[in-house]
Amino acid sequence: MTELQAGEGAQVLKVPRIDARAQRYRDVLIALVAFIVLALLPMVFGSKQLLDFVVRCAAYGLFATSLNLLVGYTGMISFGHGMFFGLGAYGFGLMMQKTGVPIPVAFAATLAITFLVAAVIGAICVRLKEIYFAFVTLAFQMLIHSTILSWQSLTGGDQGLRGGIPRPPFLGIDLSRPMHLYIASCALLVIGLLLMRQIAQSPFGYTLRMIRDNPTRASFIGIDVWRAKLVIFVLAALFASTGGMIMALFVSGAYPEFAYWTISGEGIFINMLGGVTTFLGPMVGTALLLLLNDTVTRLTEYHGIVLGIVILFFAIGLRKGLMDFIVEWFVQRREGANG
Protein backbone atom coordinates (compact mmCIF):
# COMPACT_ATOMS: atom_id res chain seq x y z
CA MET A 1 0.00 0.00 0.00
CA THR A 2 1.09 3.58 -0.65
CA GLU A 3 -0.01 6.60 1.34
CA LEU A 4 -1.05 9.92 -0.20
CA GLN A 5 -1.61 12.99 1.99
CA ALA A 6 -3.30 16.07 0.49
CA GLY A 7 -2.26 18.62 3.07
CA GLU A 8 -2.18 19.56 6.76
CA GLY A 9 -4.95 17.86 8.66
CA ALA A 10 -5.98 15.82 5.66
CA GLN A 11 -6.77 12.15 5.95
CA VAL A 12 -4.28 9.65 4.67
CA LEU A 13 -5.54 7.89 1.57
CA LYS A 14 -4.22 4.39 1.07
CA VAL A 15 -3.92 3.30 -2.53
CA PRO A 16 -3.17 -0.33 -3.46
CA ARG A 17 0.17 -0.66 -5.23
CA ILE A 18 0.22 -2.65 -8.44
CA ASP A 19 2.12 -5.88 -7.80
CA ALA A 20 4.74 -5.53 -10.50
CA ARG A 21 6.55 -8.66 -9.32
CA ALA A 22 3.44 -10.83 -9.77
CA GLN A 23 2.94 -9.41 -13.25
CA ARG A 24 6.57 -10.13 -14.09
CA TYR A 25 6.21 -13.73 -12.93
CA ARG A 26 3.06 -14.07 -15.00
CA ASP A 27 4.85 -12.79 -18.11
CA VAL A 28 7.72 -15.24 -17.54
CA LEU A 29 5.23 -18.10 -17.13
CA ILE A 30 3.44 -17.13 -20.34
CA ALA A 31 6.79 -16.98 -22.14
CA LEU A 32 7.73 -20.47 -20.92
CA VAL A 33 4.38 -21.88 -22.02
CA ALA A 34 4.73 -20.20 -25.42
CA PHE A 35 8.22 -21.65 -25.89
CA ILE A 36 7.05 -25.15 -24.95
CA VAL A 37 4.15 -24.92 -27.41
CA LEU A 38 6.46 -23.74 -30.19
CA ALA A 39 9.00 -26.48 -29.38
CA LEU A 40 6.31 -29.17 -29.54
CA LEU A 41 4.74 -27.81 -32.72
CA PRO A 42 6.96 -29.78 -35.16
CA MET A 43 6.13 -33.02 -33.32
CA VAL A 44 2.44 -32.44 -33.92
CA PHE A 45 2.53 -31.28 -37.54
CA GLY A 46 5.99 -32.33 -38.78
CA SER A 47 5.98 -29.87 -41.68
CA LYS A 48 9.22 -28.27 -42.89
CA GLN A 49 7.20 -25.38 -44.29
CA LEU A 50 5.83 -24.75 -40.80
CA LEU A 51 9.33 -24.69 -39.31
CA ASP A 52 10.49 -22.24 -41.96
CA PHE A 53 7.43 -20.07 -41.40
CA VAL A 54 8.02 -19.87 -37.64
CA VAL A 55 11.71 -19.01 -38.11
CA ARG A 56 10.77 -16.19 -40.49
CA CYS A 57 8.13 -15.03 -38.01
CA ALA A 58 10.81 -14.97 -35.32
CA ALA A 59 13.11 -12.80 -37.45
CA TYR A 60 10.50 -10.33 -38.67
CA GLY A 61 8.51 -10.44 -35.42
CA LEU A 62 11.47 -9.25 -33.35
CA PHE A 63 12.13 -6.55 -35.91
CA ALA A 64 8.51 -5.34 -36.05
CA THR A 65 8.01 -5.44 -32.27
CA SER A 66 11.21 -3.47 -31.75
CA LEU A 67 9.93 -0.89 -34.22
CA ASN A 68 6.74 -0.63 -32.17
CA LEU A 69 8.83 0.37 -29.15
CA LEU A 70 9.59 3.49 -31.15
CA VAL A 71 6.28 4.00 -32.96
CA GLY A 72 3.64 2.82 -30.52
CA TYR A 73 5.27 3.53 -27.16
CA THR A 74 7.42 6.59 -27.87
CA GLY A 75 5.75 8.19 -30.88
CA MET A 76 8.96 8.07 -32.97
CA ILE A 77 8.10 6.96 -36.51
CA SER A 78 11.30 5.63 -38.05
CA PHE A 79 11.54 5.11 -41.80
CA GLY A 80 15.02 3.66 -41.40
CA HIS A 81 14.71 1.04 -38.68
CA GLY A 82 15.49 -1.67 -41.23
CA MET A 83 19.14 -0.58 -41.27
CA PHE A 84 19.63 -2.42 -37.97
CA PHE A 85 17.99 -5.55 -39.37
CA GLY A 86 20.50 -5.46 -42.23
CA LEU A 87 23.35 -4.55 -39.91
CA GLY A 88 22.61 -7.60 -37.78
CA ALA A 89 22.53 -9.91 -40.81
CA TYR A 90 25.72 -8.56 -42.39
CA GLY A 91 27.59 -8.10 -39.12
CA PHE A 92 26.91 -11.66 -38.01
CA GLY A 93 27.55 -13.15 -41.45
CA LEU A 94 30.87 -11.35 -41.91
CA MET A 95 31.95 -12.20 -38.38
CA MET A 96 31.40 -15.90 -39.04
CA GLN A 97 32.97 -15.86 -42.51
CA LYS A 98 36.04 -13.73 -41.79
CA THR A 99 36.96 -14.65 -38.21
CA GLY A 100 35.53 -18.11 -37.59
CA VAL A 101 34.72 -17.29 -33.97
CA PRO A 102 32.09 -19.34 -32.09
CA ILE A 103 28.51 -18.40 -32.82
CA PRO A 104 27.80 -16.91 -29.34
CA VAL A 105 30.89 -14.67 -29.69
CA ALA A 106 29.78 -13.51 -33.15
CA PHE A 107 26.28 -12.89 -31.79
CA ALA A 108 27.58 -10.76 -28.91
CA ALA A 109 30.05 -8.90 -31.14
CA THR A 110 27.30 -8.07 -33.65
CA LEU A 111 25.14 -6.68 -30.86
CA ALA A 112 28.11 -4.59 -29.66
CA ILE A 113 28.62 -3.17 -33.16
CA THR A 114 24.89 -2.45 -33.44
CA PHE A 115 25.00 -0.71 -30.07
CA LEU A 116 27.78 1.63 -31.19
CA VAL A 117 26.21 2.42 -34.56
CA ALA A 118 22.76 2.97 -33.04
CA ALA A 119 24.20 5.21 -30.32
CA VAL A 120 25.89 7.46 -32.90
CA ILE A 121 22.92 7.59 -35.28
CA GLY A 122 20.42 7.93 -32.44
CA ALA A 123 22.33 10.80 -30.83
CA ILE A 124 21.81 12.72 -34.07
CA CYS A 125 18.27 11.64 -34.95
CA VAL A 126 16.43 11.79 -31.63
CA ARG A 127 17.06 15.53 -31.38
CA LEU A 128 14.79 15.98 -34.39
CA LYS A 129 11.02 16.05 -34.35
CA GLU A 130 8.42 14.04 -36.21
CA ILE A 131 8.92 14.07 -39.99
CA TYR A 132 12.54 15.20 -39.73
CA PHE A 133 13.37 12.26 -37.47
CA ALA A 134 11.64 9.88 -39.88
CA PHE A 135 13.50 11.07 -42.95
CA VAL A 136 16.91 11.39 -41.33
CA THR A 137 16.67 7.76 -40.18
CA LEU A 138 15.76 6.89 -43.77
CA ALA A 139 18.81 8.82 -44.99
CA PHE A 140 21.08 6.82 -42.68
CA GLN A 141 19.52 3.59 -43.89
CA MET A 142 20.15 4.52 -47.52
CA LEU A 143 23.75 5.40 -46.59
CA ILE A 144 24.28 1.96 -45.06
CA HIS A 145 22.59 0.29 -48.03
CA SER A 146 24.81 2.21 -50.47
CA THR A 147 27.88 1.19 -48.47
CA ILE A 148 26.86 -2.45 -48.73
CA LEU A 149 26.47 -2.17 -52.50
CA SER A 150 29.72 -0.30 -53.09
CA TRP A 151 32.00 -2.27 -50.75
CA GLN A 152 32.03 -5.38 -52.92
CA SER A 153 35.29 -6.80 -51.58
CA LEU A 154 33.73 -7.11 -48.13
CA THR A 155 29.98 -7.42 -48.60
CA GLY A 156 29.74 -8.99 -52.07
CA GLY A 157 27.90 -5.95 -53.43
CA ASP A 158 24.51 -6.58 -55.00
CA GLN A 159 25.14 -10.35 -54.89
CA GLY A 160 25.24 -10.37 -51.09
CA LEU A 161 27.39 -12.59 -48.90
CA ARG A 162 28.20 -15.72 -50.88
CA GLY A 163 29.58 -19.03 -49.73
CA GLY A 164 27.17 -19.53 -46.85
CA ILE A 165 27.58 -18.80 -43.16
CA PRO A 166 29.66 -21.30 -41.15
CA ARG A 167 27.75 -22.82 -38.25
CA PRO A 168 30.21 -24.64 -35.97
CA PRO A 169 28.44 -26.54 -33.17
CA PHE A 170 28.58 -25.08 -29.68
CA LEU A 171 27.34 -26.51 -26.36
CA GLY A 172 25.79 -29.43 -28.22
CA ILE A 173 23.81 -27.11 -30.52
CA ASP A 174 24.26 -27.49 -34.27
CA LEU A 175 22.49 -24.68 -36.12
CA SER A 176 23.17 -26.38 -39.44
CA ARG A 177 20.39 -28.79 -38.46
CA PRO A 178 16.90 -27.38 -39.20
CA MET A 179 15.41 -28.49 -35.88
CA HIS A 180 18.22 -26.93 -33.84
CA LEU A 181 17.89 -23.68 -35.80
CA TYR A 182 14.12 -23.77 -35.24
CA ILE A 183 14.46 -24.22 -31.47
CA ALA A 184 17.15 -21.53 -31.23
CA SER A 185 15.01 -19.09 -33.23
CA CYS A 186 12.00 -19.78 -30.99
CA ALA A 187 14.15 -19.24 -27.90
CA LEU A 188 15.49 -15.92 -29.21
CA LEU A 189 11.96 -14.85 -30.16
CA VAL A 190 10.47 -15.66 -26.76
CA ILE A 191 13.39 -14.10 -24.85
CA GLY A 192 13.30 -11.00 -27.03
CA LEU A 193 9.55 -10.55 -26.64
CA LEU A 194 9.79 -11.09 -22.89
CA LEU A 195 12.53 -8.46 -22.54
CA MET A 196 10.60 -5.98 -24.67
CA ARG A 197 7.48 -6.67 -22.62
CA GLN A 198 9.40 -5.89 -19.43
CA ILE A 199 10.67 -2.66 -20.97
CA ALA A 200 7.16 -1.65 -22.00
CA GLN A 201 5.70 -2.38 -18.56
CA SER A 202 8.54 -0.85 -16.56
CA PRO A 203 8.57 2.71 -15.17
CA PHE A 204 10.82 3.55 -18.12
CA GLY A 205 8.12 2.26 -20.47
CA TYR A 206 5.53 4.55 -18.89
CA THR A 207 8.00 7.40 -19.17
CA LEU A 208 8.13 6.70 -22.90
CA ARG A 209 4.34 6.90 -23.07
CA MET A 210 4.46 10.25 -21.32
CA ILE A 211 7.01 11.49 -23.85
CA ARG A 212 4.80 10.21 -26.66
CA ASP A 213 1.73 12.01 -25.35
CA ASN A 214 3.33 15.29 -24.31
CA PRO A 215 7.12 15.66 -24.57
CA THR A 216 6.98 19.28 -23.42
CA ARG A 217 5.23 18.38 -20.18
CA ALA A 218 7.57 15.43 -19.68
CA SER A 219 10.56 17.74 -19.98
CA PHE A 220 8.94 20.27 -17.68
CA ILE A 221 8.61 17.74 -14.83
CA GLY A 222 12.29 16.83 -15.08
CA ILE A 223 12.48 13.95 -17.56
CA ASP A 224 15.52 13.98 -19.84
CA VAL A 225 13.57 13.44 -23.05
CA TRP A 226 16.63 13.23 -25.30
CA ARG A 227 18.28 10.58 -23.14
CA ALA A 228 15.11 8.48 -22.86
CA LYS A 229 14.60 8.58 -26.63
CA LEU A 230 18.23 7.65 -27.24
CA VAL A 231 18.03 4.69 -24.84
CA ILE A 232 14.91 3.25 -26.47
CA PHE A 233 16.35 3.90 -29.94
CA VAL A 234 19.44 1.83 -29.09
CA LEU A 235 17.43 -0.92 -27.37
CA ALA A 236 15.08 -1.21 -30.36
CA ALA A 237 18.12 -1.42 -32.65
CA LEU A 238 19.52 -4.35 -30.66
CA PHE A 239 16.30 -6.35 -30.98
CA ALA A 240 16.05 -5.54 -34.71
CA SER A 241 19.66 -6.68 -35.14
CA THR A 242 18.78 -9.97 -33.43
CA GLY A 243 16.03 -10.47 -36.00
CA GLY A 244 18.56 -9.84 -38.76
CA MET A 245 20.92 -12.47 -37.33
CA ILE A 246 18.11 -15.04 -37.28
CA MET A 247 17.35 -14.26 -40.92
CA ALA A 248 21.03 -14.54 -41.86
CA LEU A 249 21.16 -18.00 -40.29
CA PHE A 250 17.92 -18.98 -42.02
CA VAL A 251 19.09 -18.06 -45.53
CA SER A 252 22.78 -18.76 -44.75
CA GLY A 253 23.78 -15.37 -46.07
CA ALA A 254 22.93 -11.69 -46.17
CA TYR A 255 21.60 -9.60 -49.04
CA PRO A 256 21.34 -5.85 -49.71
CA GLU A 257 17.55 -6.12 -49.55
CA PHE A 258 17.88 -6.72 -45.82
CA ALA A 259 19.08 -3.13 -45.41
CA TYR A 260 16.93 -1.49 -48.09
CA TRP A 261 14.20 1.02 -47.25
CA THR A 262 11.50 -1.50 -48.17
CA ILE A 263 12.36 -3.51 -45.02
CA SER A 264 11.46 -0.47 -42.91
CA GLY A 265 8.30 -0.08 -44.98
CA GLU A 266 7.36 -3.69 -44.27
CA GLY A 267 7.93 -3.06 -40.56
CA ILE A 268 5.54 -0.12 -40.60
CA PHE A 269 3.04 -2.14 -42.66
CA ILE A 270 3.27 -5.02 -40.15
CA ASN A 271 2.55 -2.67 -37.27
CA MET A 272 -0.39 -1.19 -39.15
CA LEU A 273 -1.76 -4.68 -39.82
CA GLY A 274 -1.43 -5.96 -36.28
CA GLY A 275 -1.84 -2.73 -34.32
CA VAL A 276 0.42 -0.56 -32.21
CA THR A 277 -1.62 -0.21 -29.02
CA THR A 278 -1.31 -3.88 -28.03
CA PHE A 279 2.05 -5.50 -27.33
CA LEU A 280 1.46 -8.59 -29.50
CA GLY A 281 0.02 -6.56 -32.36
CA PRO A 282 3.28 -6.61 -34.37
CA MET A 283 3.58 -10.39 -34.00
CA VAL A 284 0.05 -10.83 -35.34
CA GLY A 285 0.86 -8.41 -38.15
CA THR A 286 4.01 -10.39 -38.97
CA ALA A 287 2.11 -13.65 -39.29
CA LEU A 288 -0.56 -11.93 -41.41
CA LEU A 289 1.95 -10.37 -43.80
CA LEU A 290 3.94 -13.57 -44.27
CA LEU A 291 0.75 -15.55 -44.86
CA LEU A 292 -0.43 -12.94 -47.36
CA ASN A 293 2.89 -12.95 -49.19
CA ASP A 294 3.09 -16.74 -49.29
CA THR A 295 -0.53 -17.15 -50.40
CA VAL A 296 -0.89 -14.28 -52.83
CA THR A 297 2.41 -14.93 -54.63
CA ARG A 298 1.27 -18.50 -55.31
CA LEU A 299 -2.12 -17.41 -56.65
CA THR A 300 -1.28 -14.35 -58.73
CA GLU A 301 1.61 -12.32 -60.03
CA TYR A 302 -0.22 -9.12 -59.07
CA HIS A 303 0.55 -9.48 -55.38
CA GLY A 304 1.28 -5.74 -55.09
CA ILE A 305 -2.31 -4.91 -55.98
CA VAL A 306 -3.66 -7.36 -53.41
CA LEU A 307 -1.43 -5.98 -50.66
CA GLY A 308 -2.49 -2.46 -51.64
CA ILE A 309 -6.14 -3.44 -51.21
CA VAL A 310 -5.33 -4.91 -47.79
CA ILE A 311 -3.61 -1.68 -46.78
CA LEU A 312 -6.65 0.34 -47.86
CA PHE A 313 -8.95 -1.98 -45.91
CA PHE A 314 -7.03 -1.45 -42.67
CA ALA A 315 -6.33 2.25 -43.23
CA ILE A 316 -9.80 3.31 -44.42
CA GLY A 317 -12.06 0.49 -43.24
CA LEU A 318 -10.89 -0.56 -39.77
CA ARG A 319 -8.69 2.52 -39.20
CA LYS A 320 -6.70 0.40 -36.76
CA GLY A 321 -4.72 -2.82 -36.58
CA LEU A 322 -6.37 -6.21 -36.20
CA MET A 323 -5.37 -6.65 -32.54
CA ASP A 324 -6.44 -3.08 -31.75
CA PHE A 325 -9.82 -3.81 -33.32
CA ILE A 326 -10.26 -7.11 -31.44
CA VAL A 327 -9.29 -5.64 -28.07
CA GLU A 328 -11.57 -2.62 -28.56
CA TRP A 329 -14.46 -4.87 -29.61
CA PHE A 330 -13.91 -7.14 -26.59
CA VAL A 331 -13.84 -4.17 -24.17
CA GLN A 332 -17.02 -2.70 -25.66
CA ARG A 333 -18.77 -6.08 -25.48
CA ARG A 334 -17.75 -6.55 -21.84
CA GLU A 335 -18.85 -3.04 -20.90
CA GLY A 336 -22.14 -3.61 -22.69
CA ALA A 337 -22.70 -6.85 -20.77
CA ASN A 338 -21.89 -5.21 -17.46
CA GLY A 339 -23.97 -2.13 -18.23
Overall shape = globular
Number of helices: 14
Helix content: over 70%
Spans where pLDDT lies below 50 across 5 or more residues: 1-17
How much strand content do the residues show?
under 5%
Radius of gyration: 22 Å
The quaternary organization reads as single chain
Strand order of the largest sheet: 1-2
The rounded distance between the terminal residues' Cα atoms is: 30 Å
Describe what is shown at a glance:
With 339 residues, the protein is an all-alpha fold.
Care to describe what's here?
With 339 residues, the protein is mostly helical. The chain has one domain (22-262). It is built from 14 helices and 2 strands, in the order E-E-H-H-H-H-H-H-H-H-H-H-H-H-H-H. A two-stranded antiparallel ribbon has the order 1-2. Strand 1 and strand 2 (12-15) form a beta hairpin. The longest helix has 27 residues, at 48-74. The radius of gyration is 22 Å and the shape is globular. Mean pLDDT is 89; it is low at 1-17.
